[in-house]
Specification:
311 residues; alpha/beta; two-stranded antiparallel ribbon; 9 strands; 15% strand; globular
């Protein structure tokens, strides 16, 4: 049980009060403020600025100049805050309002066709563009399903976040119960949303190429697909000029276990990671570069295996 900390509840109330502001002003004003706050954060928080510049430099190497790297990094925090603003506005978002600033093309029809197969659908997206809005628009369109997310340590915050998703028809599956719940929703022919782009070394993964470097990547999405027969669909809610978004769907991936199951899992994992990389390269300012995607190395994994054997 987490230790009681009396300051948490007043901070929670303060956060709820601040979160009401984006609902009281026009969306364009709230997003403009988020961009300005993001730039200020870039200037005022040197630790995060340094981390983003380091990760961008590691990813791009000589492909981009130091000035280009700094220009991308300066826009990352603003993108994250814009994402948060639109997430807070779920409380008043409707299907009609969403259609005014989201170009979905034929995305919904494509997903309906896939769901007709009766195996469910795994939609995967990185922490890119507006991933919460990506889930939200599918909920507003009447698609049934859930997203896998982390339970927040403080219950009032957790209930708040989960409640915002539920307000647009999206349920939350906690990571601790993901295996059972993911299969449950897929068997019902529903959509399951995954965000598997981060380095999480406590779960099973493989190293696949990302920006030309080995990145430790979760194998769970491919294993879910192999076990259930559900196809994988990379999807991206890409921020556009004029406070608009474009919903972009990638190519459908249908993992099949070959004679060497482990090799098949790695091959399909590399496929969806390549689709992520393509989108991040096109819009680098819309991905969370403060996360050290290459923190885990092959040497670290081998060292842990040797230590486990010794024990």
């Amino acid at each position: 049980m987490a230790r009681y900390k009396p300051y948490r509840y007043p901070l929670y109330l303060l956060a709820r009060a601040a979160a009401a502001l984006p609902l009281l002003v026009p969306r364009s004003w709230a997003l403009a403020f988020a961009r300005a706050a993001g730039w200020l954060g870039y200037v005022m928080i040197p630790r995060q600025r340094k981390r983003m510049i380091q990760n961008l430099g590691f990813a791009y190497g000589d492909e981009k100049s130091p000035e280009e790297i700094r220009r991308i990094a300066a826009r990352v925090m603003g993108n994250l805050l814009e994402t948060f603003v639109d997430f807070l506005r779920f409380a008043k978002l409707t299907r009609e309002k969403a259609s005014r600033f989201i170009d979905a093309g034929d995305a919904y029809d494509r997903c309906k066709d896939i769901l007709q197969e009766g195996k469910g659908l795994i939609i995967m997206t990185p922490h890119f563009g507006n991933w919460e809005l990506l889930a939200g628009v599918f909920g507003l369109q009447g698609f049934r399903g859930a997203v896998v997310g982390r339970r927040i340590y403080y219950a009032p915050y957790n209930d708040w976040i989960v409640g915002l998703r539920r307000s647009v028809g999206v349920e939350t599956i906690y990571q601790t119960e993901a295996v059972r719940q993911v299969h449950y929703h897929l068997k019902r022919g529903e959509i399951v949303g995954l965000l598997p782009d981060q380095d999480i070394d406590r779960v099973r993964g493989v190293f696949v190429d990302f920006f030309g470097k080995p990145a430790y990547t979760l194998v769970a999405p491919v294993k879910f697909a192999m076990a259930s027969g559900a196809p994988i669909l990379p999807a991206f809610m890409v921020r556009q000029p004029g406070d608009r978004y474009k919903l972009i769907l990638g190519e459908v991936i249908r993992p099949v276990a070959g004679a060497d199951r482990d090799a098949s899992v790695k091959r399909y994992t590399a496929v969806w990671m390549k689709s992520f990389e393509k989108m991040v390269r096109e819009h680098p300012e819309q991905w969370g570069w403060m996360h050290n995607r290459w923190r885990t190395t092959p040497e670290m994994i081998e060292s842990r295996k040797r230590e486990a054997v010794r024990k």
